[in-house]
Amino acid sequence: METGLKHFHSYWAYLVLLTLLIAVVNAIIGLAGNKTFTSRDRFLALFALIAAHTQLLIGLVLYFVSPLGARNLSNMGEAMKNPGLRLYVVEHPLVNIIAIVLITIGYSRAKRLPTDNSKFKTLTIMYLIALVLLLSRIPWNAWRS
């Protein structure tokens, strides 16, 4: 089960990054072009939000099912001394949760803002920061192999 979850988590990450990138580019184009915020723009942002939340749920299940995560919760001091282990046990989960919180806040705020320009600006800033955070904590060595 753990191997299947790891593969699903890894492949779903491609979808998350792609939808987030599309939402960011769409928001930048809307902001730069002074365009009207349409239901298509809202759908792109919502799809990125849903993909990210799904990834979070898969990741949390994997974290507590995997011996890598569960085993090191009791020995956090040892995990913090090992950079590779620290990435999986602390940095990757924490930074990705922060990124998903930013996506959620960005989407929620953009829904309520009165002007189209402010909606695009909020989505651009929050989703772009989240994208950078996600990219910064991907375990690239393990992901490529």
In short:
This protein is mostly helical.
Q: How would you sum up this structure, described in words?
A:
- By secondary structure, the protein is mainly α.
- The protein has one domain (2-144).
- It contains seven helices and no strands.
- It has helices at residues 2-32, 39-65, 67-73, 76-81, 83-112, 116-136, 140-144.
- The longest helix is centred in the first third of the chain and has 31 residues, at 2-32.
- The two termini are 19 Å apart.
- The model has no long low-confidence stretch (mean pLDDT 91).
The number of E-state strands comes to 0
Rg measurement, Å: 17 Å
Cα separation of the termini: 19 Å
Number of helices: 7
- Summed over residues and divided by their number, the pLDDT gives a mean of 91
Q: Quick one: overall form? A: elongated
| Overall helicity | over 70%
SS strand fraction: under 5%
The sequence of SSEs as H and E is: HHHHHHH
Transmembrane segments: 12-31, 43-65, 85-108, 120-140
Protein name: 50S ribosomal protein L27
Keywords: Membrane, Transmembrane, Transmembrane helix
Record keyword descriptors for this entry.
7 helices; 145 residues; mainly alpha; single chain; elongated; transmembrane helix
Topology:
Layout: H1 2-32, H2 39-65, H3 67-73, H4 76-81, H5 83-112, H6 116-136, H7 140-144
Helix pairs in contact: 1-2, 1-6, 2-3, 2-5, 5-6
Organism: Rhodocytophaga rosea
Keywords: Membrane, Transmembrane, Transmembrane helix
Protein name: 50S ribosomal protein L27
